[in-house]
Write a structure and sequence with these properties.
Elements lengths: L22 E3 L2 H13 L8 E4 L3 E2 L4 H7 L27 E3 L4 E3 L2 E3 L10 E2 L2 E4 L4 E3 L2 E3 L2 E4 L3 E3 L2 E4 L5 E3 L2 E9 L10 E3 L14 E5 L2 E4 L2 E3 L2 E8 L10 E5 L2 E4 L3 E2 L2 E8 L5 E4 L2 E4 L3 E2 L2 E2 L5
Parallel strand pairs: 1-2, 2-4, 3-5, 4-9, 5-10, 6-11, 7-12, 8-13, 9-14, 10-15, 11-15, 12-17, 13-18, 14-19, 15-20, 16-25, 17-21, 18-22, 19-23, 20-24, 21-25, 22-26, 23-27, 24-28
Length: about 300
């Protein structure tokens, strides 16, 4: 598969995009086609439905390649949905995507050489807008390297009320956030699972989550397992704050019935607040369990 350089001739090989006849995603190239149409045109797929009909492999052996320093040969994923500015709503995914229990494996994104960008949303999906729904998606063997932005293995930022992430699972995956040691304050890691409150400087903060960086709506019945490493090394001297959660760093709605087994490694001088489930929720965190560790 490749990220298209022109409008693809088809979205998917079957389906019309209705609830009764959703677009059927059967290949990695079709996922890449969806990403192109959302990112490069003004097709948000609002009101349209997708269903994953079989497992998708974007790359093989991602974490093994990263650990062995041979990840240069991996195909880099371009997230589905982006925002050029806080008012850009025409390049976000606004449809419904049902993974139907199938697996997307081998997601690989390395933005460690890029500068800080508070509007870069990183994950399988980047920006999810009005009406966006992600459900029943299983992701494994994923790796994301980032600086400061909104980052989650499944979704960077579902940024409007009414968006939802439900019944999604991440396993055997890793996020590493790069930062220089300059100017960092002492870390605050809270293993209890939830910290009330929110940042007053939303666009000056990075949000990192095992499932999603931030969700303006609800997140429910999700589980995440793997590693989140928030480092003091990086490519720019910034003093931006990082917030992190095993499921999501920030939620505008309810986070319910979720399980996190994300293990955090917070390196010296990395300026971060981290929680086992969700760092900041605008409503409540209920019936959630954190089994991850902090080091």
């Amino acid at each position: 598969w490749t990220y298209p350089n022109a409008v693809p001739s088809e979205i998917c090989s079957a389906g019309t995009g209705t609830a009764d006849d959703p677009y059927q995603v059967t290949a990695a190239q079709q996922l890449a086609n969806i990403a192109y149409l959302v990112n490069e045109t003004e097709e948000t797929f609002a009101g349209k439905c997708f269903i994953l009909k079989n497992d998708i492999v974007l790359n093989s052996g991602v974490l093994t390649a990263v650990a062995g320093g041979t990840d240069g040969s991996l195909q880099q994923w371009t997230p589905i949905g982006r925002r050029a500015n806080p008012d850009d709503d025409v390049h976000s995914f606004c449809g419904s995507f049902d993974g139907d229990g199938h697996t997307v494996s081998g997601l690989y994104i390395d933005n460690s050489s890029k500068g800080v960008d508070f509007l870069r949303y990183t994950g399988l999906f980047g920006a999810v807008g009005i009406g966006g729904l992600l459900r029943n998606i299983y992701i494994r063997d994923a790796y994301i390297a980032e600086t400061v932005c909104r980052t989650g293995i499944l979704c960077g930022y579902a940024y409007t009320e009414g968006t939802a992430v439900t019944d999604c699972t991440v396993r055997d995956s890793k996020i590493k956030i790069f930062k220089t040691g300059a100017g960092g304050s002492s870390s605050a890691a809270y293993q209890s699972g939830y910290i009330g409150g929110s940042s007053s400087a939303a666009y000056q903060s990075g949000y990192i989550g095992g499932i999603a960086g931030a969700v303006a709506g609800d997140a429910g019945f999700c589980s995440a397992g793997g590693n989140i490493v928030i480092g003091s090394d990086g490519i720019t001297d910034d003093t931006s704050k990082r917030h992190a959660g095993g499921i999501c760093a920030q939620a505008g709605g309810i986070v319910t019935d979720c399980l996190s087994a994300m293990d955090f490694t917070i390196q010296d001088n990395a300026d971060v607040n981290a929680a086992g489930i969700c760092f900041a929720s605008g409503s409540a965190v209920m019936r959630c369990v954190n089994r991850g560790s902090f080091a």
